Every structure is written in C-alpha cells, then in structure tokens.
C-alpha cells in the first residue's frame, strides 16, 4: 500500500503563509506638497508672567448657577510696549479662548468660600468677541497654585494703578494747559481792543484836521 505522507507534506507546504514583502527602500513622493503656515496667536508682542493649568467657570445669572468655560492654561501677559497686562485662558485641546480681559486697577480677587483651591473676580471679558460683565471662578490643582495666582493677580492690579508721581505730573500738566488757554484768551481780547482804540484815535485826528480847515476858510483875507 502506498503511503500518503508525501501528500500530507505537500498540503502543509501549500497552506504555509506567504513571506512578508521585502522592503525595497523605494521612496514615494507625496502627491500634494503642503507648505508650512505661520499661525499668529496674538501673543507675539507680550511676555508671559504667569502660566498655570486650571479650570474656569462663569456664573450664569439667568440660570443662577456656575457653568464650566473650559480646562486649560491661564496666562497673565504683559505687553512689551504699553506695559498693560491681560488675562488669557485657552482650552487645552481646542485652544479656544475662554477668558480674555485686561487686568485693571479697580479689580479685586477673593477666595472662594467653599473651596480653598478656587478664587473669584469680576471682569469685562472679550472672549466671545464683545464685552460682557462676567463673574469668574477659577480652580487649581492645589491650594499653593491658587495662592500663587491670587498674589500675582493682586500684584498686577496694584502695578496698573497710577503712581503718585504720575498724578502730580498730570495735575501740573492740566494747570499749565489752563494757564495757556487763559493767556491766549487775554491776548485775543487785547488784540480786539487795540484796533478799536486805533480807530478812535484816527477819527479824533480827522475831526481835528477838519476843524482847522474850517477855521482857515472862515478867516478874512489880509489886505495888501
């Protein structure tokens, strides 16, 4: 009887998986060439003085509740030329702006009564493309981060307040401007009065000359 083992071996050879294609090292050029585009964030002329991860909320007056604005990075940015400082926060994944406002000397930041990792402040925010009065609440991962943010925020508020020297200089400039206006008004009045006086003098002179002429005409001719 003939053995069937060879057929079995041949069947195993047929069922064996084909070997992976070898890497030829060929490089395929892309069909479309993409050019690198510079993306402007609007922060090129500003220096960051604070950069921290946090989660931001805004108070919804209509619903009388807190609503999440997003989780991401909050920054305090100082303009290189004007020195003004603004607060900007973007969502971590989409980079959508969820807070964007100037830090003004009239602002105050205070701790959240129910959470020592959070703090509150009011601001006229421009994140949605128009100014809105908002009450913000920001929460950090630790109490230390919250304290650091509050201290820096308060320091910026105080730095934006006009200094006493600037106030004195502004007051002096205002007084000088008022004096200049008053002197100019006085000169204008004097200029108006001078032509009137000159006109009076001219009329008086003309009257005198006229009287002298009349006298001469009225005198009798002398006999020769």
UniProtKB/TrEMBL annotation:
Residues 1-13, 181-224 have a biased composition (Basic and acidic residues). PROSITE patterns: RANBD1. InterPro entries: PH-like_dom_sf (IPR011993), Ran_bind_dom (IPR000156), RanBP1-like (IPR045255), RanBP1_RanBD (IPR045256). Residues 27-162 form the RanBD1 domain. Residues 1-30, 160-224 are annotated as: Disordered. SMART domains: RanBD (SM00160). GO terms for cellular component: cytoplasm; nuclear pore. It holds the Pfam family Ran_BP1. This is Ran-binding protein 1 homolog c-like isoform X1.
